[in-house]
Amino acid sequence: MNILAKRAGLVAASADKVKRCHELWGQRKNKAFQEIREKLGSSCSGRVRCMYCEDSEATDIEHFRPKSIFTEHAFDWENYLLACSNCNSNYKRSKFPLDGAGFPLLINPMNDDPMDHLDLSLSTGKFVASSHRGIESIRVFGLDRQVLEDGRRDAWSIFCALVARYSAIRRDTSADSAGLIVSAIQNQSFSCVSLYARKYYLTGVLSIVAPQDVCRILDDNPEIFDIST
Fold it and tell me: What is the DSSP string of 13-77?
């Protein structure tokens, strides 16, 4: 990450830090930044899904702390996420609410556990905030967009169907074929759905909201969650 340290030094030494920051950020079409993007991609869910919406492909190196405000973090690896262009350019943008002590009021997908701040209704796909950070994250990231809520709801239906299919394959064919089902669970968009399903299963909540046949299959095949989360 030598290139990041070098560019951070150039910004710090500049009289107009915002202007210099944007100039240098525009000069990132090189191998080093491609490697940065690939490394961030390895931390994305599914098949390199956006760290905010988990729906679209993550294509943009995103600054958690906006570079237009926090120029000192423009070339800070710890400040990078990988997002889709829609979330980056149309929702998060330069919004960055802070509390009275100057602490970020947004969930950082790389460092925070969203489950500490958000609950998920599997049947509706809606997030329900359990903290102020959860409220602000839903608002700033646009997590309450109808298309995302519909997507999470559909992902739950797909999860249930795949669990049933996994059980049938385990009975009738090889473990290799069952592994393909697990891969599908792992790599579908909105992978948070399987994570919340696992949480609700372990806490006994899933039996209330999920079809009983799905719960029985999970009881008989706990490796589904062990492998898919």
Answer: T-SSHHHHHHHHHT---SHHHHHHHHHHHTTSSTTTB-TTTSSSBP-EEEESS-TTT-GGGTT-G
